[in-house]
Specification:
Helicase, Ruva Protein, domain 3, single-stranded DNA helicase activity, ATP binding, ATP hydrolysis activity, about 50% helix, Zinc Finger, Delta Prime, domain 3, 7 strands, DNA binding, 4 domains, 5-stranded parallel beta sheet, alpha/beta, 19 helices, Rossmann fold, P-loop_NTPase
Length: about 425
């Protein structure tokens, strides 16, 4: 039985990895580890289908170490013992352990000494946040790398490579992939390369050649049917997905309820719940923010409900959230404030932390002047005492410039300005 295209096209060298150039590009950390042959155990985390297994496979291929794949949820301690025995014989084994967040304590305790000795180089893969869902014992023995969602351009590159590869890919088939179909495979899979490759293979194998041209022509309708997702438009430029998301956010920002619902409906009809949920969360805090913080919380609740429900029912809580955001007062003051602070930090406007704010919880701190003169606000009336918190060179800086578009930020503005007056008087 032939393995799926996504499996066959896994890279065997670090240079073949699609995307993730912040980790595997020339001069980046994993690239340098491979080049120096100084591998250490690591955890790769990110959404499904973006290259965790591919990177592990490429590392193994580049270093020529034995490569084994197990699943923490399915494979037993006995399976780990077999890998450990192989490592004793061959010297080093790279172990790709999928769903590492589900590694139980018995398996973990068995693995730890082998990680310490370096006989097993662990590459754990997870879609969960490792800082929350993976035990400290494993985390302390690994480096943690976050993988980024693949772009449509990344996926197009991988699809073109698969169509050209006559050994592992689809190069032996006379395929004509129309531009609009290519754009749909690249964008509708939301950065999941595995889905895009396997969708392309299904389209090629299930489409008969044209009797005249002898070509297997993959059109947009075939791509839509294969992925079970409709395209946003027929223009084939690959930007329609991003255009709809952009129009969706701008409609909410502009308080046009009907337009926002229209663009949301396009995303729902295309089955793109992930993009819709993510964009709603961004909009809530970027465009409504301080003007109506309770609405932001309700959007989080609606997105959580939508994720649990799935489509088509997910449309109901999302519609309520969209309507509320459209009709809510707007403010981007929070985003502007943090961007202003970041601009100062990035341009080198930092300054020394005042000595009385520095950590004083160690022996000898007082001799260094750390923490001396700090006044504990909870000891004062109203739990506030004016004192300097910003570095000297920024002591008069104001990043937050409140707006008055909603009752919440109006109240925050009054409190902020009162506190600023007290701080300046000090």
């Amino acid at each position: 039985m032939q393995k799926p295209l996504a499996y066959r096209m896994r890279p065997t060298d670090i240079s073949e990895v699609v995307g993730q150039q912040h980790l595997v590009g020339p001069g980046k950390i994993i690239y340098r580890m491979v080049q120096a042959n100084m591998l250490s155990s690591m955890i790769l985390y990110g959404p499904p289908g973006i290259g965790k297994t591919s990177i592990a496979s490429a590392i193994a291929g580049s270093t020529k170490y034995a490569f084994r794949m197990l699943n923490a949820a399915v494979n037993t301690k006995k399976d780990l013992q077999i890998v450990a025995e192989e490592a004793k014989m061959s010297g080093t084994v790279i172990l790709m352990l999928d769903e590492i967040h589900r590694l139980d304590k018995t398996k973990q305790d068995f693995l730890l000494p082998h990680l310490e000795s370096g006989r097993i180089i662990l590459i754990g893969a997870t879609t969960e946040n490792p800082y929350i869902n993976i035990s400290p014992a494993i985390r302390s023995r690994t480096q943690i790398f976050e993988l980024k969602p693949l772009t449509a351009l990344d996926i197009k590159k991988a699809l073109q490579r698969a169509l050209a590869d006559t050994t592992k890919g689809l190069g032996q088939y006379p395929v004509t992939l129309l531009p609009e179909a290519m754009a749909h495979f690249a964008s509708a899979t939301n950065g999941d390369l595995r889905s895009a490759l396997n969708g392309l293979e299904l389209a090629v194998l299930s489409t008969p050649p044209d009797p005249t041209t002898k070509q297997i022509e993959i059109t947009l309708p075939i791509a839509e049917e294969t992925l079970q997702k409709k395209a946003f438009s027929q223009d084939g430029d690959g930007d329609a997905h991003y255009d709809v998301i952009s129009a969706f956010q701008k409609s909410i920002r502009g308080s046009d309820t009907n337009a926002a619902l229209h663009y949301a409906a396009r995303l729902i009809e295309a089955g793109d719940l992930k993009s819709l949920n993510r964009r709603l969360l961004v909009i809530a805090y970027e465009d409504i923010g301080m003007a109506n913080l309770p609405a932001c919380s309700r959007v989080v609740q609606a997105v959580t409900a939508a994720e649990k429900l799935g489509l088509p029912e997910a449309r109901i809580p999302l519609a309520d959230a969209i309507i509320e955001l459209c009709l809510s007062p707007k403010s981007n003051s929070g985003m502007v404030a943090i961007d202003s602070a970041l601009s100062d930090v990035q341009s080198g406007k930092i300054g020394a932390i005042p000595a009385d704010l520095k950590d004083a919880h160690y022996k000898g701190a007082a001799a260094l002047g750390r923490g001396l003169g700090y006044q504990y606000p909870h000891d004062f009336k109203g739990d506030f005492v004016p004192q300097q918190y910003l570095p000297n060179n920024l002591r008069h800086k104001q990043y937050y410039l409140p707006k008055t578009n909603g009752k919440y930020e109006q109240a925050f503005k009054q409190q902020y300005e009162r506190l600023q007056r007290l701080l300046k008087s000090h």
